[in-house]
Specification:
The chain has 408 residues and is α+β, with helices and mostly antiparallel strands. Helix content is 57%, strand content 13%.
Length: 408
């Protein structure tokens, strides 16, 4: 291709992007607002429903039960756990008027009352295994439980990241039971196979002096969490940039496809978030640092777009660019309106899921920032990150195909 023609094509691409980008952002925001009004959505109610649904399977739940199953009378707690799984924690046992801290050798007898911590999805299984729930309150245990206390200790030692609860032997070594793990405000059942992460809060039951020893093991120094742990973030960005720069070639397409500066770091971040704790990589950082980096990232992105496209913005509109604005509006609004309607009316997705789906499918960080700021939930970013990599890849692929068809 003639260099002059190639230069003109590149200039037209930049001008078209500059003119269409604002309506690409505003159009998506208008679709979200229009869809919210069309279906008369209550964001607060949707958020409560989503939190309830997310917490119904993994979030911790206390159960007060009477031992009524003859199959477990006289059985050691360790034998019961070995046979029926470890999806629950027996926190305390009441034999008559005495509250005891259970160990693996503790024997369950008929009429014992037990305090169990499990997930909502295991409630029916626990009732079948032990017996029916009894009308008790946590304070009923506290009043009779003079030598045991409940304390919250926080994991602040990076060396604890990636360790399983069962590997720390809190019950055997210290006589302390961890009943729940609070992570990012969500209560999780303290399963033996649960990987710990820096910043986790452990709800411990046992003698107070023993809990202090557990606290010393995991750190429990709140000041350690005040420092932003930025090394994994910037390391992930570097690796992500390298990954996004790797060309991916397809047969019949002359130009290699790259995920770019956005797609590469995002995929690496997802992998780090999932596998990092298992491989003892500390990914915790303070919420303030997290929010600061997000805001700076969106601001730099918008500034770069404006600086790169501002030079020819006015001249492009005067010389027919208003058609580009119209086409950009149609390309943005029509498919997204259909997507919103199908997602809500047919697939019955939650509003926050739809916000993440639409902003991620458009690979549109400003819309993500708008949805999070306007409606106040990080559930949007979870769904955004889910669809973004594939959307980015397909957009680059389609652009390459269009160029190939037009000029090939």
């Amino acid at each position: 291709m003639d260099p002059a023609a190639a230069s003109q094509i590149a200039s037209d691409l930049a001008s078209g992007y500059a003119v269409a980008y604002p309506i690409g952002v505003l159009g998506v925001i208008l679709v979200l607002i229009f869809g919210k009004s069309l279906f008369k959505i209550d964001p607060a109610g949707e958020l409560a429903e989503l939190e309830s649904r997310e917490g119904s399977t993994g979030q911790a739940r206390r159960m007060h039960l009477a031992v009524e199953n003859p199959a477990i009378f006289g059985k050691k707690l360790s034998d019961i756990l070995q046979k029926f799984g470890n999806d629950f924690v027996v926190s305390r046992i009441m034999k008559g008027d005495e509250v005891i801290f259970p160990t693996g050798e503790t024997v369950l007898d008929e009429g014992d009352k037990i305090l169990v911590v499990t997930s909502q999805g295991e409630v029916d299984k626990i009732r079948i295994l032990f017996g029916q729930e009894v009308p008790m309150h946590v304070q009923d245990w506290v009043q009779k439980d003079h030598h045991l206390v409940t304390r919250r200790v926080t994991v602040t030692k990076s060396s604890m990241t990636g360790k399983k609860l069962k590997d720390l032997h809190f019950r055997g070594a210290y006589g302390v039971s961890v009943t729940r793990v609070i992570r990012s405000g969500v209560e999780l059942v303290a399963r033996p196979d649960l990987y710990l992460q820096m910043g986790d809060a452990l709800i411990c039951v046992g003698p107070e002096d023993h809990i202090k020893r557990v606290a010393g093991t995991v750190g429990n120094a709140s000041s350690a969490l005040d420092k932003p742990n930025l090394v994994p973030i910037f390391l992930g960005i570097v690796v992500g940039i390298i990954f996004g720069s790797v060309p991916i070639r397809f047969p019949g397409i002359p130009q290699a496809i790259k995920l770019g500066l956005a797609g590469g770091p995002l995929i690496i971040a997802i992998l780090l978030g999932h596998f990092g704790p298992k491989y003892k990589i500390t990914t915790y950082t303070t919420m303030s640092a997290n929010l600061m980096i997000r805001e700076i990232g969106v601001s730099l992105f918008l500034a770069a777009v404006g600086l790169g496209a501002g030079e020819n913005f006015v001249s492009s509109i005067v010389n027919g660019g208003y058609w580009w604005i119209l086409f950009g509006a149609l390309i943005t609004i029509v498919p997204l309106c259909i997507t919103f309607i199908v997602s809500r009316a047919v697939c019955h997705l939650n509003f926050y899921q739809i916000c993440g789906l639409i902003s991620g499918s458009c690979t549109n960080p400003p819309v993500l920032a708008f949805a999070q700021g306007m409606y106040g939930s990080d559930y949007t970013s979870v769904n955004y990150a889910t669809v973004y990599p594939l959307s980015m890849f397909l957009r680059v692929l389609v652009a390459q195909l269009l160029i190939l068809i037009s000029f090939g």
